[in-house]
Amino acid sequence: MTAALEIRGLHKSFGALAVTRDVNLTLERGARQALIGPNGAGKTTLVNLITGVLQPNSGQVLLDGEDITRLSQAKRTRRGIARTFQINQLFRGLTVLENVYLAVAERTGACNKLWRPAGAERAVIAEALAHLDSLRLADDALKLVRELPYGRLRLVEIAIALALRPKVLLLDEPAAGVPSSESHLILDVIAGLDPDIAILIIEHDMDVVFRVAKRITVLVQGAVLTDGTPAEIVADERVRAVYLGEEARHG
Ligand SMILES: Nc1ncnc2c1ncn2[C@@H]1O[C@H](COP(=O)(O)OP(=O)(O)OP(=O)(O)O)[C@@H](O)[C@H]1O
Ligand SMILES: [Mg+2]
Question: What is the pTM of this model?
């Protein structure tokens, strides 16, 4: 079966600094995969290369077996690659429902049509509400984004990503900055996502990683150190050495 996402020999340098070095990574359909590694390992850079924010110096990104390396960000989104929206890109003066409505309308093209078929708008609202419901945000639907606490905003980001009906969902530290009393909400939501969506989650909190991921890829200094099941990664001396080294440096 064709992988949902495949990265082949990806390389990216900023000047003399190579931040992505010959990275190969495969996300199967419905994958629950984590990308871990020390600060500055190149995890976010990889997300930027996958979504088209950055262009690699060499290598390929394939979605469903099709080469998308040269496609714009917008085209990749339309083909089914979503990352969690950045909070600062939300419309703070609009309600949560309106924000998700706009994402659904954008995907379906409902915004662009002067003459909409009767009921089209209602269908967009219904879908937006369904996304909010699945993220347990229904009670917040009519609240303004600017009134929501940070943990809830991170859920709104996920709702907007889901409104794009992605095949591949990239979650870059979805629980970062969320108080630990609320982080279980984000975990529950991730656990409940459509099993067909391939998910790559970047996360420093190993409890989160082990709860979500069935496979783990370890990135160190821009290169894949290893990948495997959580049990294999825990047992891997090289991975331990990387993290023990980190602990020693941070005291
Ligand atoms: N636009 C840029 N120009 C120059 N260097 C960059 C740029 N973006 C990232 N880098 C460098 O690339 C390296 C990888 O950064 P990246 O943000 O991808 O790491 P990360 O693994 O996501 O780290 P963290 O866990 O802290 O989020 C770092 O050394 C960073 O300073
Ligand atoms: Mg990062």
Answer: 0.91
In this structure, the residue with its CA closest to atom 29 of ligand 1 is: 40
Q: Is the dihedral of CA 76, 79, 84, 87 positive or negative?
A: positive
Say yes or no: CB of residue 48 within 6 Å of ligand 1: no
Task: Retrieve residue 2's tokens.
Answer: 């064709």
The mean per-residue pLDDT over the stretch 25-36 comes to: 97
* Tokens read off for 198: 């391939």
Beta carbon of 19 within 6 Å of any ligand 1 atom: yes
Cβ of residue 40 lying under 6 Å from some atom of ligand 1: yes
Residue 146 has φ and ψ, to the nearest 5°, of -65, -15
The residue contributing the CA closest to ligand 1 atom 8 is 45
Percent of all residues in the chain with a pLDDT value above 90, rounded to a whole number: 69
What is d(CA 120, CA 86) in angstroms, rounded to the nearest whole number? 28
Report the nearest-CA residue for atom 16 of ligand 1: 42
DSSP string, 180-242: HHHHHHHHHHHHTS-TTSEEEEE-S-HHHHHHH-SEEEEEETTEEEEEE-HHHHHH-HHHHHH
Pocket test for ligand 1, best of 13, 43, 45, 201 (most atoms within 8 A of CB): 45
Tally of CB atoms within 10 A around 206: 15
- In this structure, whether the domain defined by 1-80+166-251 belongs to CATH 3.40.50.150 is answered with no
Q: What per-residue confidence (pLDDT) applies to 178?
A: 83
Domain boundaries, given as residue ranges, for the chain: 1-80+166-251, 88-165
Cα–ligand 1 centroid distance for 207 (angstroms): 24
**88-97, 118-127, 143-152, 220-229: lowest mean pLDDT where?**
118-127
